[in-house]
């Protein structure tokens, strides 16, 4: 999709993502493929990139400088980023979040993905080098968001992963709504195990209940396995799930 087509569709679609980066050619990346790519082509969502270097103040198109107080690396400048953010936000509703990909930020999760979709769009700032001048985050009300407790070379891969999580929630992108309803985190649990043919592989059989045709028992088995997997692998999620179940039970009494 050309940038002109993408910009035109971004005015009418339900979800618009705008990414500020010094590597605009990295996008849409893998988001141009599979179901997300089909949704992008169909205008179900739109992606616009803004090259931060376009707001540079010198012929070298530099966007960074040495850190105040000394130290290694370089820091992206507040004046340049401020201008880039202002340009990106000029035609966006104030209610749409603006986020910075940062290991210091709040951990991205399914609730945040749903919130971005409900907002109708998001502006994403992708940092590089040692980071960005703290003043621009404060002055522009930027929320720091983290993909996890690890370091990447820049914010672009994290931005793609987060946008992928949002895009698949857009009606029409994934197809059947049942697919989304049964996925991990939707119910507060990790997803149950999956199986398909052959019935027996290397001596391992598909659990008998899944081939019984008894839909009630299959649903019970899947819930039990989802609960077991969550309890063993993600105690944090399990604790939250138990609290929600207890509140629901108390309301029913």
Write down the CATH topology of the largest domain. Alpha/beta knot
Contiguous helical run count: 9
Major beta-sheet overview: 5 strands, parallel
Rounded to the nearest angstrom, the radius of gyration is 22 Å
CATH architecture title of the largest domain: 3-Layer(aba) Sandwich
The helix/strand order is HEHEEEHEHEHEHHEEHH
Distance between the termini: 55 Å
Level-1 CATH class name of the largest domain: Alpha Beta
Number-wise, the strands total: 9
The chain-level structural class is: alpha/beta
- Quaternary structure state of the chains depicted: single chain
Strand content: 15-25%
Low-confidence stretches: 1-5
Mean pLDDT: 92
CATH superfamily of the largest domain: SPOUT methyltransferase, trefoil knot domain
Structural shape: elongated
**Helix coverage percent:** 25-40%
Spatial ordering of strands, largest sheet? 2-1-6-5-7
Short characterization:
With 253 residues, this protein is α/β, with parallel strands linked by helices. The chain is 39% helix and 16% strand. The protein has helices spanning 3-10, 34-42, 78-89, 110-119, 134-139, 156-167, 177-181, 215-233, 235-252; strands at 15-21, 45-51, 64-65, 75-76, 98-107, 121-125, 143-146, 200-201, 204-205.
Structural features, described:
The protein is of the alpha/beta class. The chain folds into two domains: 3-167, SPOUT methyltransferase, trefoil knot domain (Alpha/beta knot), CATH 3.40.1280; 182-252, Trp Operon Repressor, Chain A, CATH 1.10.1270.20. Helix content is 39%, strand content 16%. Strands 2-1-6-5-7 form a five-stranded parallel β-sheet, with helices on both faces. Strands 3-4 form a two-stranded antiparallel ribbon. Strand 5, helix 4 (110-119) and strand 6 (121-125) form a beta-alpha-beta unit. Helix 4 packs across helix 6 and helix 8 (215-233) crosses helix 9 (235-252). It is elongated, with a radius of gyration of 22 Å. It starts with a helix and ends with a helix.
